[in-house]
Amino acid sequence: MSTLALLVVLLFVLVGGIVFGGLAYLAHRHPFCREPLLVGLTGVAVLAALVTPIVTR
Asked: Which long-range contacts (CB under 8 A, 24 or more apart) does 12-17 make?
């Protein structure tokens, strides 16, 4: 895997962690939306689906 691909994966993971952590926090502050853990895990699953093609290339 090239250095550029590793950098892109790192960027996705960092930004995804911030975004999905924020989603989990918002769901925690407003419980009528959804359960916070479910929202966070769904976000992580989407992030993994985006990163997997880059890593396996």
From this structure: 12/47, 12/50, 12/51, 12/54, 13/47, 13/51, 16/43, 16/44, 16/47, 16/50
- Using pLDDT thresholds of 50, 70 and 90, give the confidence band for residue 33: low
**Biggest distance spanned by C-alpha atoms of the chain:** 44
Determine if the pTM surpasses 0.85: no
The rounded distance, in Å, linking the Cα atoms of 3 and 11 is: 12
End-to-end CA distance of the chain: 7
Cα–Cα distance, 42 to 52 (Å, whole number)? 15
Task: Enter the tokens of residue 49.
Answer: 């689906």
